[in-house]
Amino acid sequence: MTPSRARDASRPLPSRSALAAHWGLDPDVVFLNHGSFGATPIAVLGAQSKLRSQLEAEPVRFMVRELEPLLDEARNALAAFVGASPERLVFVQNATTGVSTVLRSLVLRAGDELLTTDHEYNACKNALDFVAEASGARVVVVQVPFPLSGDDEVAEAIAEATTERTRLILVDHVTSPTGLVMPVERIVAEANARGVDVLVDGAHAPGMVPLALDALGAAYYTANCHKWICAPKGAALLYVRDDKAREIRPLSISHGANSPRGDRSRLRLEFDWCGTTDPTAAIAVKDAIAFMQQIVAGGFDEVMRRNRSLALHARAVLCDALSVAAPCPDSMIGSLAAVVLPARRTPAAPSASMTEPLQDRLYFEHGIEVPVPCWPASPHRLVRISAQLYNSPAEYNYLASALIEELALEAR
Predict the structure, then answer these.
(1) What's the CA gap between 156 and 82, in Å, rounded?
(2) How far is CA 65 from CA 77, 276, 279, 281, in A?
(3) CA 409 – CA 357 distance, rounded (Å)
(4) Residue 56 CA: distances (Å) to CA of 62, 71, 91, 92, 241
């Protein structure tokens, strides 16, 4: 997109926090979108670079003799972090892959119902539609209001839509467009009591909210490590409850499918080797956890507390500036927060980057990287902010001023 106005270089960008020195972020961008793809600290990238050098120094030795123990070490660290048995965890490339892995492993029949909410991530909704179309199953989309008053509206809407035909519930732990921390403990408990499996799309959850996956009891849980854990891109987890382990197969069937080995579970044998790829992102998850644990006194608990506090502060700044009410209670906020913006007068044609024009103007004309999702659909839209240790309150004040300016220009 060609900007309609150039950024006023005489207006300085706000400073980041002192902890931003640990990241290699572009100094000419106010980066308020950690939630989309994360941002990996320099030290963690250095650890991954060493692993890549180790791999390329002797690829056969690395892949054949060294890979399994390295993956096990990383898996053990991740399992301890998310409160899971290591035997129930495998690495996948991203949470979208984890969702598709589960869905395409299920044996579905005509009349089966796959239930999700209208806050579900678009890519994963597409995966639901794909398997439903192939099998004759039906996707049921539960309408969850936004703004909303609390957890009950979510849990009750899902419970009311669950029937004897419901085969699986796919629910976000933290919704992507709206930044809601969903009541997954209640949703899973109620579904389990009715004999319905739940797949939790926890793309944003590790490193944002405390996790105890074994205690949660979901049949399946998938989550990214490259977001709030700050691992390199290409590292995610898939958790499979013991009674479901034999049903779940990787998207790429490889050597593990007929391995005669008895020293490792079939789940590990199949998922730990799906063909040649770069495994260093998964191995470096342990380095990311270790780094983020020590970046501030108090470890990851303090990281999560600081990020949540900053997200709530930033949301309050935006709501005050735009004269709108907070769309959900504080209890449903982690490190993401969405604020409702005035709807466009007419739906906008998407740009080449498929972004809302306001998002492009904030980037090109103000140097702000922040998502403006059209939710539930254009002309309706939100602004979704992220809070990571490198951010500062001044950056959200700057965003508020830019939004006031741009919305005033739209209103002319």
Answers:
(1) 27
(2) 20, 14, 14, 18
(3) 13
(4) 8, 17, 21, 22, 36
Q: Are 313 and 379 in contact (CB under 8 A)?
A: no
Q: CATH 3.40.640.10 residue ranges in the chain?
A: 45-292
Please say whether the beta carbons of 54 and 43 come within 8 A.
no
CATH 3.90.1150.10 segments of the chain: 18-40+299-411
Q: What is the pLDDT of residues 376-407, one digit of tens each?
A: 988 899 999 999 999 999 999 999 999 999 99
Q: Token pair of 257, please?
A: 């499918």
254: how many CB neighbours lie within 10 A of its CB? 16
Cross-strand partners of 99: none
Instruction: State the CATH architecture for 18-40+299-411.
Output: Alpha-Beta Complex (3.90)
pLDDT digits (tens, 9 = 90+) for 326-354: 999 999 999 999 999 999 877 666 555 56
Which tokens go with 97? 């892959």
Look at domain 45-292 and name its CATH class.
Answer: alpha beta
Side chain identity at 63, as an amino acid letter? M
Q: What is the DSSP letter of 178?
A: T
Sheet holding 197-201, edge to edge: 89-92, 236-240, 220-224, 197-201, 166-172, 113-117, 138-142
CA distance 351 to 333: 30
Alpha-carbon distance of 300 to 321, in angstroms, equals: 31
DSSP per residue over 207-258, as a string? TTB---HHHH--SEEEEESSSSS-PPTT-EEEEE-GGGTTT---SS--GGGG
Question: Which two tokens mark 47?
Answer: 């650890």
Pairing label, strands 336-341, 220-224: unpaired
